[in-house]
Write a structure and sequence with these properties.
about 500 residues, 6-stranded mixed β-sheet, two-stranded antiparallel ribbon, 23 helices, about 10% strand, elongated, binds guanosine-5'-diphosphate, binds magnesium ion
């Protein structure tokens, strides 16, 4: 994207907790169509886009591509690049995502941190806010899910909140596109004026003194100075000034558990913010609904039968008559009609037999072998995203967790495993839906132990040939053995090279 005659380009970094609506806001801002949901890995990679909302002569208006040319030569036309940072709960370097975010803000110096906060989970979300605010970068809080908050029977006094945290706060509803325009306008103003708010949380006077001394000695943002006091191992190794070690040591003598102290101060502040700005206005319609649903799907007796029923239904539709029909249809279309058509064309043009053999028997039937899995993969993913978005997956995980934790897996691994009995290919693909890499790898290794439909004919031939009298029992034991080996392998893998 050309930057030359478009005025200054601003870079806004989108930061927030997982599930706070970052992807939704990113898509709304950039107009790009990414996957919204919890597909693992989607937000771990760095995503960028150009904001389609523009600021022009102090009036913001919706820019469409048709209008772009009119603005091209206008110096006041600001370009905003949005960078989507990974979803994180804090800036402590406990994970790669947290390190990516912290390093990005320190090294690449975005013009603005757009901190997206889930208003329905204010207390948990504001923890990251208190840390981001110490990065000494202009910042705006996008208070998201305002619609859900209302639904929950709460309201937030945004002005009070803004005053308390000292950071410009804009209420929005990303999924409904509400408030996004005003958010962009306010953000541009903060970025253009390079407004850095006050630090919301202050510590004991001697701690403050130590923080400021470290800041000066190391030339680091406040957050890093605080992290140094907490003995953050990644930062300690980069200390430039020998005086810093001394300050850290002294302060840690006064406050013995620095990390706990700092976290407690943050939470104490957050509690006071929540107390001052959140009020209950009505019944929690959402919770009442959730309770009703939970009373059925998490019922002590019916939960498991309901779960088995749902799995059975998905299994039946995906691998039963319907899925098979679609697969056969695609197979027919591609491997019979299309192959015949190409083959007759090639004959007509009297193409050399080796070449037509390569095309028809090689390429077309090779691709065809893969293409026939498509309908089942699509069906399975459709159901999975439905389970995920409806919240049933989280509840399932809750039911199955106890069982699967013994295997070193999360409850969600159950679904790919079950689907493994239908067909390994879609089942292995569905492993993508699991949240962490370790679960994905481990589940992926275990799925093939679940005997899929294609193994059945092989079992049938061998059992019929070798154990004609006990074919049924042998086939059953083969299935059972597969599961058993799966469990044993799971235990071995989770204790050896895929540790938690
Ligand atoms: P991310 O993990 O931060 O990228 O969050 P997503 O953008 O994937 O959003 C998580 C969930 O919240 C999705 O199901 C969204 O549809 C939903 N969501 C996002 N913004 C809003 C909002 O303003 N209101 C409501 N009710 N739901 C929202
Ligand atoms: Mg996301």
């Amino acid at each position: 994207m050309a930057k030359t005659n478009l005025g200054k380009e601003f870079v806004f970094a989108l930061a927030g907790n997982p599930n706070s609506g970052k992807t939704t806001l990113f898509n709304e801002l950039t107009g790009s169509h990414y996957q919204v949901g919890n597909w693992a890995g989607v937000t771990v990679e760095r995503k960028e886009g150009i904001c389609k909302y523009v600021f022009h002569d102090h009036i913001t208006h919706f820019d469409t591509h048709e209008h772009e040319s009119e603005h091209k030569h206008d110096e006041s036309h600001n370009h905003i690049r949005i960078v989507d940072l990974p979803g994180i709960y804090s800036l402590s370097p406990n994970s790669a995502e947290e390190v990516i975010t912290r390093d990005y803000i320190i090294k690449e110096k975005p013009d603005l941190i757009l901190n997206i906060v889930d208003a329905t989970n204010l207390e948990r979300n504001l923890y990251l806010t208190t840390q981001l605010a110490e990065m000494e970068t202009p910042m705006v809080v996008a208070l998201n899910m305002m619609d859900a908050l209302e639904e929950n029977g709460f309201s937030i006094d945004v002005e009070k909140l803004e005053e308390k945290i000292g950071i410009k706060t804009m209420p929005i509803s990303a999924s409904k596109g509400r408030g996004v325009q005003d958010l962009v306008t306010a953000s541009l103003a903060v970025a253009a004026n390079h407004e850095i708010g006050k630090y919301p949380v202050t510590y004991k006077p001697h701690t403050e003194k130590a923080v400021n001394e470290i800041k000066r000695a190391e030339n680091l943002p406040r957050l890093c100075a605080v992290k140094l006091l907490e003995n953050d191992s990644r930062l300690i190794s980069n200390i430039q000034n020998s005086k810093t070690h001394e300050i850290i040591e002294n302060e840690n003598k006064i406050i013995r558990d620095m990390e706990t102290y700092i976290a407690e101060e943050r939470y104490r502040f957050i509690k006071s913010v929540v107390k001052a700005s959140v009020s209950k206005t009505g019944p929690n319609r959402q919770a009442e609904r959730t309770k009703k649903i939970d009373s059925v799907v998490n019922h002590p007796i019916f939960a498991i039968p309901i779960f088995i029923g749902i799995m059975f239904l998905i299994f039946q539709i995906t691998f039963g008559a319907f899925g098979t029909m679609l697969s056969d249809g695609v197979d027919m279309l591609f491997n019979v009609y299309f192959a015949d058509f190409v083959s007759s064309c090639l004959d007509k043009w009297s193409v050399a037999p080796f070449l037509s053999g390569l095309i028809v028997a090689g390429i077309i039937s090779g691709v065809g072998g893969v293409v026939t899995f498509f309908p089942q993969i699509m069906l399975l993913f459709l159901f999975l995203s439905f389970l995920e978005d409806s919240g049933y997956m989280a509840r399932t995980a809750f039911i199955m967790d106890k069982l699967f934790i013994k295997l070193g897996l999360s409850g969600k691994s159950f679904v790919p495993m079950i689907m493994g009995f239908g067909c390994s290919v879609p089942a292995i693909m569905s492993v993508r839906t699991l949240e962490n890499e370790r679960d994905r790898k481990l589940t992926l290794l275990l799925v093939p132990f679940m005997s899929c439909g294609a193994k059945m004919p092989v079992y049938a031939i061998f059992t019929a040939a070798l154990f004609p009298e006990h074919a049924g029992a042998v086939t059953f034991s083969l299935y059972f053995l597969g599961i058993l080996l799966g469990i044993i392998s799971g235990l071995i893998f989770s204790k050896t090279f895929i540790k938690g």
